[in-house]
Amino acid sequence: MRDNIITSIDLGSSLVRCVIADASSEVDGQIRILGVGAVESDGMRRGAVVDIVDAAEAISVAVEKAEMMSNVQVKSAIVSIGGAGLTIESTKGVVAIGRADGEVTEDDVTRVINAAQSIVVPANKEIIHVIPRSFRLDDQKDINDPIGLQGVRLEVDAVVVEAPGNHVKNLTHAMERADITVEDFIIEPLAAAESVLTKKQKELGVVLVNLGASTTSLAVFEEGELVYTAIVPIGSDFITNDIAIGLRTSIDTAERVKFEYGSAILDQASQRSKIDLSQIDPREDGEIPHSHVIEIIEARLEEIFELVQKELRSIGKDQLLPAGAILTGGGVNLPRVAEFAKRKLRLPVQIGRPENLLGVMDKVDDSSYATVVGLILWAMDDIHYSGGRNKFTSGILGAVSGGAKSSVKNVGSWLGKFLP
Hints:
- The chain has about 425 residues and is of the alpha/beta class.
- It has a domain at about 235-295: ATPase, nucleotide binding domain (Nucleotidyltransferase, domain 5), CATH 3.30.420.
- About 35% of the residues lie in helices and about 30% in strands.
- The chain has helices at about 50-70, 105-115, 165-175, 190-195, 200-205, 235-245, 250-260, 270, 290-315, 335-345, 370-385; strands spanning about 5-10, 15-25, 30-40, 45, 50, 75-80, 85-95, 125-135, 140-145, 155-165, 180-185, 205-210, 215-220, 225-230, 275, 285-290, 325-330, 350, 355-360, 400.
- The strands form five sheets. A six-stranded mixed beta sheet has the order 11-6-1-2-3-19, with helices on both faces. Strands 7, 8, 9, 10 and 20 form a five-stranded antiparallel beta sheet that branches. The protein has a five-stranded mixed beta sheet with strand order 14-13-12-17-18, sandwiched between helices.
- Helix 9 (about 290-315) crosses helix 10 (about 335-345).
- The longest helix has 25 residues, at about 290-315.
């Protein structure tokens, strides 16, 4: 980030997306999008790098497209991290107040967060986030903002989000080959939540379900806190593969069939209609029942949302989130998927899309851009703090992002994201 220009990169399994925004032109909570670039994500599989050279090339092309649109040269970016292997665990930190008069300062908060992340991390893991839940000052519990209070002993109750170390290193290497410095890594479901979830939803209890190409990630919030995150190793590309197998056709044809005729729920019109494959690909022939395609889609969606439901059941939140489920990701553009999810999860369900955008907003006001826009919003919080807006005054705590460096950064960047 420089001169209030923010670049974000979402390294998805299907597409690499790059967005360049101007934080200085924010008006009434709206941000101006200057440039957008998206290309197929060669070298990526299930959110992880499998070919450094191909991944770096895809990153370079996506960035170049955004640069041409915005007339801005990119040197660094805030980057999403997804894929299997993300874990979350509780931790605590304790320090003595540094000042003689016992007043809590930002330095005390920094030290207690450092203490919280001084846990035994497995050799194959790296800390991505340390997220404070609440502070305790001597005998006073459940403090959101301890700065300015007086005491002797400061404690923090937090959660640590970890990712596989080799995954982080490979993503960093791919970015370096593309001549882009990683400002920070933010896990995919947290970034998406930043752009589509409201404070009220997080307080009531909500699950964000990000249906990507090869994985489905979820993040559960309650009482303003991130309480759980998980990655389900199935995404919307599995639906395309099922259609290709079921119709005995190519992946490209199957993708077009899904896009043009797909639906999450079978209706009466679809039961009677036929699909002429030759109209999609001249090399194909014959008609197939429209209902057959939708039955294939329903079967795979049933599996995906059963796995989501299983994750919610494992933490005792199945059917117990008042704000329901918010769906994001390219996979939710399938017609009637929200209705399907509502029936399966037995929760209120909405499609989440980034809002309050200016500039080339027509490029990013889609649920598949929730993550990359969320990265921009995350970075804007840091800029606002460094510009003099102390987020401690909001009484809200956020995440400490370690990124590739696993270091505690500006105290202000921890505030404003999770706690009421």
